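Hi F.,

I've been meaning to write this up properly since the lab meeting, where we talked about keeping a consistent format for the predictions we share between groups. The idea is simple: the sequence comes first, exactly as it goes in, then the structure tokens exactly as they come out, then a line or two of notes. No screenshots and no reformatting. I'm using this chain as the first example so we have something concrete to point to.
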Amino acid sequence: MAKRLQNPLPHLAAVAALLLTALLSGCGKGEINQALDSDANGFVCQACKTKFYTERKLFADFCPNCKNGDVRQVVGFVCSHDGHVTLAPRGPGFLACEKCGKSTSALSIPREKDLQAWGAARKSAGEVSSQPN
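Output, unedited:
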């Protein structure tokens, strides 16, 4: 798994400034909306490391493999150097890029095709949720 960077505050401030500039200038609205939109929700089980995803409106309550409730939602960490996206559980701070090792500087929400390429399997409500459909 990718290594987390020690002090995320400078990176967070830079990302916030960049987003604010883009929003105020009106440029890149399509890119921002695309980065924040997805057709699926990705997860990884903290107990058994199973990678899986669900349809957009479904959020997992537990792992489909071991039934543990400690599942974390996955986000994309975008490398400022080469644009590579490292998928990992959402958490504090940014990760080092899994490709080049440099700092990531932005977040994106992975889409179904990204989650499939990462090795995640699609799961249904019956497999990951205690809520009826």
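Notes:
Residues 28-121 form one domain.
The chain has a mean pLDDT of 83.

If this format works for you, I'll send the rest the same way.

G.
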